[in-house]
Design goal:
The protein is of the alpha/beta class. The protein has two domains: 190 residues, Glycogen Phosphorylase B (Rossmann fold); 190 residues, 3-Layer(aba) Sandwich (Rossmann fold). Helix content is 50%, strand content 16%. The longest helix is centred in the first third of the chain and has 21 residues.
Length: 388
């Protein structure tokens, strides 16, 4: 059985890898032999997929920012289409990565109309349906949606797309996380150190618009206590130099971490992070966080004035309950002073920390039960057998 999986970005590669492990596990139980191929990154390769092009390094947010990645995206899709001609899939799974995946899905629907297409982790149209044409195209392409949020499943079901709520896959990932003591021991962190972990960039553009602001904020934070130490998490090895330059510029007491993400989170007293999947990971590990996001001024102007982009919250952890469990500082509000002030409050104000932890427990109750990836894999095989 040949399965095509297409995704992009660091988070998509992570979700894809977790699903691939479950697909192989469920196939083995059923006596099936799988061949999985597609677009993704190193994690999916390690999980056993043949990755034709690395799409974790060609992601961006914004019209201007996406221009440098148009040709690489086109080349990756061309490689995939050529491979499909010799190796047509039995099942297609599209994970997030909305723009490129709609193009791939449209091609597959036209060329292989009987092949079932599953969409896993849909765009957040249920929050802000500002691009209804994307929603309509997704519905016309996909046979079934595997939703990670209940609201997501309801939204698409009402629009006419068969949907199943499977729960959030990060629940499965967090089972593997060490506790605070183990994490600190493994990373060589003493008990008196106050650890602030930093998750500033998973896309190249964020090195320019987010990293310098967070680094400057850290220079203000470390003045408040000699025990504060920062852990900069590298989502891409190529980001090291840019982040090292900021560490040196502001004389930060910082360590760069490449790989041990869960350990760094679990060892932390606070996190400062861009908005994204990491916000939910931190919430599930009970790490208070300040969420920061900035785009180029031109992109933000287009989003606000032309696309009429308007969201109360960007962080998935806040979106789940539709309230600010963690402070969000976006664009003009994301100043070093504001980031520093919110961070110090969460570090040293016990009531603020407790309010955050209480909110995290509510978030956890909305995400389903552990075993998400296995349930998703089972659902895919069950639905496939019903039609074949």
């Amino acid at each position: 059985m040949k399965i095509l999986i297409s995704t992009g970005e660091v988070s998509g590669d992570l979700q894809g890898a977790m699903l691939i492990e479950s697909l192989y596990r469920q196939a083995e139980l059923a006596g099936e032999v799988l061949e999985i191929y597609g677009l993704g990154g190193e994690r999916m390769t390690q999980a056993g997929a043949k990755i034709l092009a690395d799409t974790t390094i060609i992601s961006s947010i914004g019209l201007i920012e996406s221009i440098p990645f148009i040709l690489p995206t086109y080349r990756s899709q061309k490689l995939l289409k050529e491979y499909i001609k010799e190796n047509p899939p039995d099942i297609v799974i599209l994970i997030d990565y909305i723009g490129p995946n709609l193009a791939i899905g449209g091609y597959l629907r036209q060329q292989y109309p009987t092949v079932p297409i599953f969409y896993y982790i849909a765009p957040q149209s249920w929050i802000w349906d500002g691009r209804p044409q994307q929603t309509r195209k997704l519905i016309s392409i996909a046979d079934h949606l595997l939703a990670i949020f209940q609201q997501e499943a309801h939204f698409f079901q009402e629009k006419g797309l068969e949907s199943t709520w499977v729960g959030h896959p990060l629940l499965d990932r967090m089972v593997k996380a060490p506790n605070r003591e183990q994490a600190r021991h493994n990373l060589g962190i003493s008990s008196e150190e106050i650890i602030v972990s930093l998750f500033p960039a998973s896309r190249k553009q964020e090195l320019k618009y987010i990293v310098p602001t967070i680094a400057q904020a850290c220079s203000l934070i470390q003045k408040e206590s000699k025990h504060i130490r920062f852990l900069f998490l590298l989502s891409q090895p190529s980001f090291r130099q840019a982040i090292e330059e900021q560490v040196e510029k502001y004389s930060l007491k910082a360590t760069l971490i490449d790989g041990e993400v869960l350990e760094a989170m679990a060892a932390s007293d606070l996190a400062i992070s861009k908005s994204g999947t990491v916000n939910l990971e931190l919430a599930l590990l009970n790490i208070p966080q300040v969420v920061v996001y900035r785009l180029s001024p031109i992109t933000m102007w287009i989003a606000r004035r032309i696309l009429k982009f308007s969201l109360l919250y960007l962080a998935p952890s806040n979106i789940v309950l539709n309230r600010a469990i963690s402070p969000e500082l976006v664009q003009e509000a994301a100043t070093p002073e504001a980031i520093s002030q919110e961070s110090l409050e969460l570090l040293f104000n016990s009531q603020r920390r407790q309010d955050t932890l209480n909110g995290y427990q509510e978030i956890r109750s909305q995400l389903g039960e552990v075993g998400v990836c296995d349930r998703t894999a089972k659902e895919i095989f069950t639905l496939f057998k019903k039609t074949h």
